[in-house]
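Q: Could you fold this chain for me?
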Amino acid sequence: MKRACILFVFLLLFTVSHSQSCSSLRYQDTIFHNVTVTNGIYFGTATPYGLLAQPQDLYLDFYEPAGDTLTKRPLIVFEFGGGYVIGWRSEPDIPQFCEYFAKCGYAVASIDYRLGLNPVDTNSTIRAYYRGVQDERSALRFLCQRANQFRFDTSLIILTGTSAGCFCAFANAFTTDAERPASSYGSLLEPSDLGCMDCSGNNDFDHHIPKIKAIVNQWGAILDTNYIDASENVPVISFHGDQDVLVPYVYGYPFQLPVFPNVYGSVPIHQRLNSLGIMNEFHPLVGYGHEPELLAPNLNDTIYNYSRVFLYKLLKPTTDPIHGPVAICKSKVATYSVSNTTGSKYCWQLSGNGSIVQNNGNNIAVLWNDTGMVSVSVKELNAILAEGEELTFQTSVVGDAKANFGYIANELSLTLSNWSSNATHYHWAFGDGSTSQDTDPVKIYTGGGSYTVTLIADNGVCADTFATTLSLDSCPVASFTYQTTNLNGFFYAQPTNTTSYTWYFGDGDSASVTYPNVVHVYPQSGYFEVILLVKNQIGCADADAAIVNLSTTNIATPDNQEAAITVQQLVNEIKVKCLGHEVMNLEIYDVSGRKIGAQSFSNAAEISLQNLQKGIYLLRVGNATTQVIRKVVVQ
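A: Sure. Below is the predicted structure, expressed as C-alpha cells.
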C-alpha cells in the first residue's frame, strides 16, 4: 500500500508538472533563495587620470542564482555613481540590488571604472565621464567574450547604475565613436588621446559591444538628448528625485557647478524617447533629492518592483496570434498554430470536449467531440524561461452534414426526396449536365439512359456527397398486326424502345426475342389467343393481345366479337356486357401471364379494380364461340 501511495503521488506530481510546464515566475519574482557571488574578476587594464599614474587593473563582481542551470540568461551590468571621483563596485546599496535581481533569475555584474578629474577643468570632467564609458564597454566585451562561461545571452544586456554610472549607460546605448566628446581627443591640460570607445581595457569580442537591450536609469543624465536616435531604440525606465540638486532633474550643471557641462536629466530624456516612439517609463520620486534610497530604503522596493515589471515586458515572448479555423465540423481535424520561435516551448489547452491528436510544439491537431463554441489556448515559454501571455482562440464546432436522398422514377420523370441531415444548402447534379439548388427537385430527362445523380449537402462549414446511378426510359408500347396463311402466323410488333419481345401464341408455345417480328407455325387450325409482352431496359412492360383465326368453321369473327361483348373501364371498376344470354367466362391475367382472377356471368358483370396493384393487366371474356381480350391499366 505504501509503495502504491508513493507511485500515485509521483504520478500526480508528474501530471501537474507536465500540465504546468509553461508556467514560470522567473524574472517576475524572487524564485531563487540564494545567490552565488564571485568577487574580483579581472576584466582589463587601463590608464587612469593623472600624468604619473600607473595602469589600473579593473575588476567586477558576478552575481548569479545559486543552483541555476539555465545556459542563456539576461545580464544586468551595474556601474556605481560618485561623480567620477568616489565610489566602488560594492558600495551600499549595490550588493542588495544585484542579489535581488539574481534571485529573480538574472545574471548581474557590478564593475569597476577609473576615477579622477581636475575639478577646475570642464574638459577634465568630460574626459572622466568618457573613461567611465570606455571601462563599462571593456567589461561588456570581457563578459561577452566569455558568455558561455558566465551563461548569459549577449542580446539581452541591461545597463544600470546610479548617477554617474547611468551617464555612461546612456552613452553606451545611444552614442558612437563619431559622437565622442572633443576633449576625449586631448585638451590643454590633458593632451593625451583617450582613444576610441572600444580602444581601452582589453581586446575582447572583436572590439565592439552588442546592442543594449534596455537601461534602468537611476538619477542619471545625458550630455545631449539629440544623441538618442529612433534607430537605436533602447527602452528606458527612469527614476529621479524632483529635488535633486546634484544631477539635474531637467537641465543644468551637475552639482550646480559650471565646471561641469550642462546635461539633460530624466525629464527631457523621457520627452525625447516619447517623441521618437521608444518604449520608456518615468517614475518621478516626488520630494526626494540625489541618491534617495540611502536615506529612504523603502524606495528600493519601488525601484525593484517597477524595474522588474518593465524588464519582464522586454524578456517575455510576444506570441503571434493563434491561427486556426473559426468553424469546423465535428468529425474533421482542426489545426491550430502560432509562429515558431527557436528554443521556445508551447503549452496548449482545450476548452470543450476535444482531443489533441497531434502536437508539434507550435502547432496542434484537434479532434472535437461535441458541437458548440470551444476554444484553444497556448502559452509560450521562451529559451530564457520567460513566460508569455496566454492566448485564446475560439472555434464553432458544428454537426457533420450528411447527404442522402430517395427517388421515385416514372418513365423519364424523376422525383427526388432529400433525406439529408444537418445541412442548409444543396447542389444536385443529374448526370446529364444539368443541376439544381432546390431541396426536393423534380427532373424530367429528354431521353432514356443510365444517369448518376449526385447530391452535395453542406451547412456552410462542411459538406457531404451522396450519389446513385439509375436507369430511366419511357415505357414501350405493345402493339402488333398479323397475317395468316394456312397454319402459318406472321406477327409484326410495332418497334419502340423495347429490349425484349415475348410472344405467347395461344397453342402452348412461346418465344422471347430481341427483334419485333416473328413467324409461328400452328399445329392445327382454330382460334388462338396471341399475347405480346414487351419490356425496355429498365423493366417497364406493356402487353397486347389478339384472337388469331386459323379455322374455316362458322364462328364469330373478331368484328362480331366486338359487337357481341362490350368492355368499359371506369376509374375503380370494369363493366362487361353481352348481347345474348350465353354464359361467359371472365379471366384476369397480369403481364407475366399469371391468372389472378376468374368468374362466370350472364349478360353483364362488374369487376372492382381497388384491390389490384398499379400496372397492366389482360382481361379475357368469352365462351366456346366468342372471345374478346382487352388491356386494362390500373393507375
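A (continued): The first helix runs from residue 2 to 19.
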